[in-house]
Amino acid sequence: MNWYLQNGKDSDVIISSRVRLSRNIEGIPFVSKCKTEELKTVYKKMKEIVPLIGYGLKFISLKDLNDLNREALVEKNLISAEFAKSKNPFSAIIINDEENICITINEEDHIKLQVFSSGLELENLMNLAMEIDQKLEELIPYSFHKKYGYLTACPTNVGTGLKVSVFTHLPALTITGNIRRFLSAINNLGMSIKGVYGDSSKAEGDIYQISNNQTIGITEKEITKNLKLISQKVLEQEKMARKYLTKKGIDLEDKLYRDFGVLSNAKKISEEEARELISNVKLGTDLGIISELNDTKISELMLYTKPASLSLRVGKKLSVYEQEIERANVIKQILSE
């Protein structure tokens, strides 16, 4: 089973964790300054060394993926929307079957090494990322400065080149009216927090990404430790808000079951409405109020109600109207399995 359909530590609140390392090859300009032949050199070098890295990794040229498959990778947070639109013939990904390792080639940097896990797994992910990074560094020379560290296309990544992120589900903080104050507190602690589906104080689906801001003058271990401490505070605050909500008793149960009723009986449903309903139904499932569902089904609902993943599941590209109908059908299928 792919990592995004699994349950992890504290995945009722911390949906997933990601560790990303940005790297460039010594002697070759950054991607934005590269000539075609230089992009081709990076592409060929990375393709040649894939068998030597291990982990069941496969090299896939981006030009060999159709639009739906590219969009599905974006929906799983494996690649950025900008990279999915790349026209560069020498863009590629290196990925394994479980999709918990995904290395992008010739995106903003020559190499972006990413590892993923469900739940809160920052130390294990960091160990895996550093292990793969060490293998890569033995095979290709990195751009590195004795004073500044790893050199990257974006100045905010210089130093460790490390971006650690957790994706959190915070519906109770939203319902209790504490989310705006909470977002401000996280930003004041030197972390960045934003809605995954919008940067407003009320993100659609109540899913927020928390990441480190600092990459220079601090070690990888310190970055990971700091984000874990923040994540544990987030976990604590959301659970306290959930405990407060449970005091509403029948009123809370009524709202969550009404949302479950709409989700499970709708004949057609938009992506935005599905996202909001799934958020509330997930809350009900995590609180033990909605017993008809489990975490695996919630993960499937979160993935297969997204446009490209939905189209791939039903086996054809769908118009927006067709998506609304098929989305309702797929929801019923998942709920009945």
Describe this structure in words.
- Helix 2 (67-75) crosses helix 11 (307-314), helix 10 (295-304) packs antiparallel against helix 12 and helix 11 (307-314) packs across helix 12.
- The protein has 2 domains: 3-242, Creatine Kinase, Chain A, domain 2; 250-336, no CATH class.
- The chain is of the alpha+beta class.
- The strands form 2 sheets. An 8-stranded antiparallel beta sheet has the order 2-3-4-5-1-8-10-9. A two-stranded antiparallel ribbon has the order 6-7.
- The model has no long low-confidence stretch (mean pLDDT 94).
- The protein has helices spanning 36-53, 67-75, 81-84, 122-139, 171-175, 179-188, 220-246, 250-265, 271-286, 295-304, 307-314, 320-336; strands at 14-23, 58-61, 92-95, 101-105, 111-118, 144-145, 149-150, 162-169, 191-195, 207-212.
Instruction: Please tally the helical runs, counting DSSP H or I stretches of 4 or more residues.
Output: 12
What is the spatial order of strands in the main beta sheet? 2-3-4-5-1-8-10-9
Average pLDDT for all residues: 94
Main sheet record: 8 strands, antiparallel
Radius of gyration based on Cα positions: 21 Å
Number of domains: 2
Q: Which CATH architecture of the largest domain is right?
A: 2-Layer Sandwich
Cα(first) to Cα(last) distance is 16 Å
The secondary structure category is: alpha+beta
Q: Hey, roughly how much beta strand do the residues contain?
A: 15-25%
Estimate the helix proportion, in percent: 40-55%
CATH fold call of the largest domain: Creatine Kinase, Chain A, domain 2
H-E order: EHEHHEEEHEEEHHEEHHHHHH
CATH class of the largest domain: Alpha Beta
What's the β-strand tally?
Answer: 10
Output the CATH homologous superfamily of the largest domain: Glutamine synthetase/guanido kinase, catalytic domain
Described by the principal axes of the CA atoms, the overall outline is globular
Low-confidence stretches: none
